Amino acid sequence: MTECDKFKRFFSDYLDGEISFEERRSLEAHLQVCTDCSETMRQMKIIQESLRRMPQVKTSADFEQRLHQQIFAPQTSVQMGNQLFQNWKLPAMGSALVLATVGFFLIFGDSSDSDSRQILQSGGQFRPAATQISKPDYFQPLGKQVQSRSSEVSSTVISDSSAMPSDSIVGQTSGIHMIEQQVGSTQ
Amino acid sequence: MNGNFDKSNKLKKSLYYMTTKTRVGKKGVISDEELIARFQKGDVQAFDMLVRRYKDQLLNFVYRFVGNQSDAEDIVQETFLRVYKNKHYYKEIAKFSTWVYTIAGNLAKTELRRRKRHKIFSVSNFVNEERDFDIPDEKRNPEAEVDGTIKEDIIQKAIEKLPPKFKEVIILRDVQGFAYEEISQILNIPLGTVKSRVNRGRLKLQEDLKFLFESETKDVM
Predict the structure, then answer these.
(1) Per-residue pLDDT in tens (0 to 9) along chain B, 221 residues
(2) Which of A46, A169, A176 sits opposite B109 (nearest CB)?
(3) Are B24 and B18 spatial neighbours (Cβ–Cβ below 8 Å)?
(4) Does domain B27-124 have CATH number 1.10.1740.10?
(5) Contact status, residue B157 vs residue B63, Cβ threshold 8 Å
(6) CA distance B189 to chain A (A)
(7) Cα(B216)–Cα(B214) distance, rounded to whole angstroms?
(8) Of A9, A162, B46, B194, whose Cβ has the fewest other Cβ atoms within 10 Å?
(9) Cβ of residue A50 closer than 8 Å to a chain B Cβ
(10) Do B73 and A145 touch (CB under 8 A)?
(11) Considering its fold, how many domains does chain A have in total?
(12) Do A118 and A143 lie in a common domain?
């Protein structure tokens, strides 16, 4: 580690005014003789000011309205489900298709009893596709998404870590920190 | 010179914190903690007040993180949705701001990981990135061409390029103006680690942006 590197550790403290008297005297003495460090310090100061002056973005005018819609979205989906259920055409068509398929195999398929029984007993080809698909990852809470991606990760995150940051506040594992660690462990 | 520099720095800092922090307690203003307590008892209007109080702050935080306003707004929406659904998980021992920023930070990081997994790089982003970090042409006059908007764009891109652990502390400290102690609570990392990361993040930014500020530095000094 060069002498400059040693002093660079205190650059932020100096900018923030959180440096001890001795450290400050020592750093200022170095800055007077080291052009590179002096230039770096000056640029850091300008960048810091620029960051503070960054323009503020505003949420769109309908932000709160859209939020309310999202909050009540589960009710909307239930209503949609009811509407679909009340609409008799869709389930009727589905049932007719299933019956027609079963009928086709019973009538025109190999009529040996053993084969027919095999088809009926297997049931796999008539099982609705939805029952074969596992629950998508994005339905899992945030913590579980990470957990499911990593089989090596210890199961410390049980529930939605981002939804319960209070856990981290009361001294338990932080959501951000845990996820960072977990992802790190997968890489 | 340094004495004056420190005094003006401290004055600007305190003014900055006073003007940008809605969470600073004021007489007659209901505190965030009081509002969340009311919301936990079923007062939805209290939730709406918290949304109005924090929506823009959080948007700025997340926007600087992900670099896309539309995505940032979706993340802030999701943040408030989670606050709404998980209001009983909030404990009064911590500031509401700490809690809500933690949620938003988690979601922003998840979005970045998702992008990394799916390698979503739009053509426009690629073009901007190339343009932003081109070495400036010596024949041009940087002062004339690098106007405020372009400069902000370049700084934003430099922030986005920072490693996440530096990016989050730089945004919270230098863009949002949080105290080190609060950042330590939001990220649940030791105070010393926060300070170290802020220092390294600032040095990294200076390294990446030195071409932009070299002439300005000479002018200022």
Answers:
(1) 444 444 444 444 444 444 334 444 556 789 999 999 999 999 999 999 999 999 999 999 999 999 999 999 999 999 999 999 999 999 877 899 999 999 999 999 998 888 877 765 443 444 344 434 444 444 555 555 456 778 888 999 999 999 999 999 999 999 999 999 999 999 999 999 999 999 999 999 999 998 887 755 454 44
(2) A176
(3) yes
(4) yes
(5) no
(6) 8
(7) 6
(8) A9
(9) yes
(10) no
(11) 3
(12) no
User: What was the ipTM of the complex prediction?
Assistant: 0.71
Q: Which chain A residues in 17-46 lie under 8 Å from chain B, judged by CB atoms?
A: 17, 28, 39-40, 42-44, 46
Tell me the residue type at B63. Y
The answer to whether A54 contacts B64, with C-beta atoms less than 8 Å apart, is yes
Tell whether A126 and A141 lie within a shared domain. no
Cβ contact, residue pair B81, A52, below 8 Å: no
Surface of A (127-186) touching B: CB under 8 A: 142, 145, 160-170, 173-177, 179-180, 183
Query: One-letter amino acid identity for A96?
Result: A
| B34: three-class secondary structure by DSSP | helix
Domain range holding A23? 3-51
Tally Cβ neighbours within 10 Å of residue B21.
Answer: 15
Domain B147-221 CATH (choose: 1.10.10.10, 1.10.1280.10, 1.20.120.450, 1.10.3720.10): 1.10.10.10
Minimal Cβ distance to A66: which of B48, B77, B93: B77
